């Protein structure tokens, strides 16, 4: 069966997009810029001295006024230095590392205050989010796959300062199954513990960021 002319196919695509455009105030796109922090063997706590730049892009879909789904890609650097701690074991080990993380995540957000599309209303709300993501990094150990799983969990607040622009602040930690973000080797029989990671704890990384987003509000024609 021959294909329909190009203009007919474009018209059909347009018809399919009408329902989406009719509710376009539910679509939001934006970016995030901030810092990443590592937590693991080399830095057992979140140490502000190890903050490194990070950033990302995201797409939000708001099916209801209190719930949103976000798809996000982000990347950033992680560092850690044993010599900057007061722990005797870490000072004796003297490990340090630099790593780059690249992440893709699907998140669900719950907004504690309802957003409304009414005119002259300044929307703001705190929110909590969680979901699942996959990430890659540059210090994989032998036998480790190229992709790892992370479980993001965090909180944020956003304010629509000038419709349709929204500014936000967000804190989110990624819980992982990886123990090699710091490049330390997995435990091996007969090897020195100084160069080994702790198998009972897994590495984490935290992303703190300012966000700026644009919401596509529907234009009402007279």
Automatic annotation (TrEMBL):
Pfam families membership: DUF6089
Domain DUF6089 residues, every copy: 13-221
Gene3D superfamilies: 2.40.160.20
Domain of life per record: Bacteria
Record's protein name: Outer membrane beta-barrel protein
């Amino acid at each position: 069966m021959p294909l329909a002319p190009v203009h007919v196919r474009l018209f059909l695509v347009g018809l399919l997009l009408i329902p989406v455009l009719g509710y376009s105030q539910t679509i939001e796109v934006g970016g995030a810029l901030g810092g990443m922090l590592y937590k693991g063997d080399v830095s057992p706590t979140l140490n502000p001295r190890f903050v490194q730049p990070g950033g990302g892009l995201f797409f939000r879909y708001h099916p209801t006024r209190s719930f949103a789904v976000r798809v996000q890609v982000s990347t950033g650097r992680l560092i850690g230095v044993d010599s900057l701690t007061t722990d005797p074991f870490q000072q004796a080990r003297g490990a340090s590392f630099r790593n780059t993380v690249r992440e893709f995540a699907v998140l669900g957000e719950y907004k504690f205050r309802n957003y409304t599309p009414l005119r002259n209303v300044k929307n703001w709300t705190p929110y909590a989010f969680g979901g699942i993501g996959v990430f890659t990094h540059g210090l994989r150990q032998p036998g480790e796959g190229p992709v790892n799983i992370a479980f993001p969990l965090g909180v944020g607040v956003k304010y629509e300062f000038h419709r349709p622009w929204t500014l936000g602040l967000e804190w989110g930690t990624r819980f992982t199954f990886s123990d090699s973000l710091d490049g330390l080797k997995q435990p091996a029989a007969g090897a020195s513990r100084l160069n080994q990671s702790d198998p009972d704890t897994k590495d984490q990384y935290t992303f703190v960021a300012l966000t700026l987003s644009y919401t596509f509000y529907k234009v009402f024609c007279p």
